[in-house]
UniProtKB/TrEMBL annotation:
GO molecular function terms listed in the Swiss-Prot or TrEMBL record: transmembrane signaling receptor activity
Classification lineage: Bacteria, Pseudomonadati, Pseudomonadota, Gammaproteobacteria, Chromatiales
Compartments reported by the entry: Membrane
Family under the similarity heading: Belongs to the methyl-accepting chemotaxis (MCP) protein family.
Compositional bias ranges of the Polar residues kind: 286-300
Domain of life of the organism encoding this protein: Bacteria
Keyword Plastid found: no
Name this polypeptide is given: Methyl-accepting chemotaxis sensory transducer
Keywords carried by this UniProt record: Membrane, Transducer, Transmembrane, Transmembrane helix
Organism: Aquisalimonas asiatica
Amino acid sequence: MNQFRIGPRLAAGFTAVILILIVISTLAYINFARTVTATEENDRTFRAVIAGEEMLVSLLNIETAERGYLATADGRFLEPYEAGREAFRRHLDAAREITSDRPQQQERLDDMEQVYEQWLEEHIQPAIARRHEITTFGDELEDLFSSLGGGHELMNEMRSTLRAFMEHEQRLLTERQDNVQALQLQTTGALATGTLIGALIAGLAGFFITRSITRPTRRALDVANRIADGDLTVDCSSAYKDEVGQLLNAMDRMSDRLQAMMQRITDSASRVASASEQLSSSSEQTRQGARQQSDQTTQVATAMNEMASTVQEVARNTQEASDAARDASTKADEARTVVEGSANGINQLADEVRQASGVIAELEQQSESIGQVLTVIREISEQTNLLALNAAIEAARAGEHGRGFAVVADEVRKLASNTQKSIGDIDAIIEKLQSGTREAVGVMNQGSESAGRNVQASQQAVEVLEGIIAAVTHISDMSNQVATAVEEQTTTAEDINRNITAINDVAAETTSAVDEAAGASQELARLATELQDVVSQFRVR
């Protein structure tokens, strides 16, 4: 069995069990189908027996209804009679349908139907018709009752037929029940037998398959344990063709390769130990040189840091001077702008003062014109007053006829007096206005002269500020040149400082790398020794 692989062996065992299960399931299914068929036939038989009993009940109902009607002539007895006939026909049809595959039963039902029709036509229906015609109790009624004996014979014949019909169905029912019990016993026996055979075959297959797998597996496990303990001299070859045999052959090849590998590792460990000692010596020398270089570059870096600090201080002072020059230039520009704005404002103010002086002079001329107009008005009012006096005198001369005219003349005289008074007030106001105008013209002329002098002073201040701005600009340019040179020197110093720092970092890294290399070489030597110890634990051919 070990000549086959494990997969086919397991598949063969499981296939055998599955085939047994299929056979058992097929037998169980067949017997179950037979049981279902027998149960359905039993159900048909039960329904046939019930149909026979219902037909017998229908016949009894017909007979009872007939006797009741013959005895009483009450039409109510005809209702169960008709119902019995309908029920008998319905159950007869049901019995025919149920026993359609049984010729003997169909023949019994045909015979019974013929007797039933004969019984109705010859006895039941004629008796009911005759009783319907008889209205009084007498000899005819006695003869009618005496004729019922012939109907009893047909009724007994139908009962015998129905009894034979139902007995036949009962026998069929008994036979099917026996068949069902036999099928149940057969099914139970088949299932038990199949289960035992399946269990036996599964147990045997499992035993042999397990044995064929575990025996070589134990050998493979023993070989693996010996190899794990360092014994590479174990023989792992196997003649088995299954997976375990292939595993043993693979372990045999692995053992051979491990032996060759252990030999190469031993040689390599010896060479690594020798090389690590040489590397440790070289690392020590390199470490000392790297430390000296690191100390020297540290001193140079310190000096460059001090120089860079000094250069940065000079650059900072120069930058502050340049900033102060730029601030002075900015403020001088702002002052020039303010002075120019003041000069422009003063010029504008002088122009406005001159314009105001002209307006006031024109106002003085207009006030003199107003004075002339007032003189004319004053003369007109004086003449009006004289005319009013003359008119009053003439009105007084006219007497009663000139009274109304005198009143008007008096009013005109009053108006002329008021006009003269107002003219006097206006004349006083105009004199004050002319006096103020003359003073304003004088003040305006003085302001115009002062504005002219201020404009000249502003122009001189602008010229001075432009000179200051030019000087400050020159100072700022010189400061910028100094700042640029200082910045270049600072950049150069920083580059030198960075380079020295980088050299110092490289030297530190070199020192660290040398230290690590020295430690690595020592660790490598230790590992080489441990490797030799480990390899020595394996036994090789």
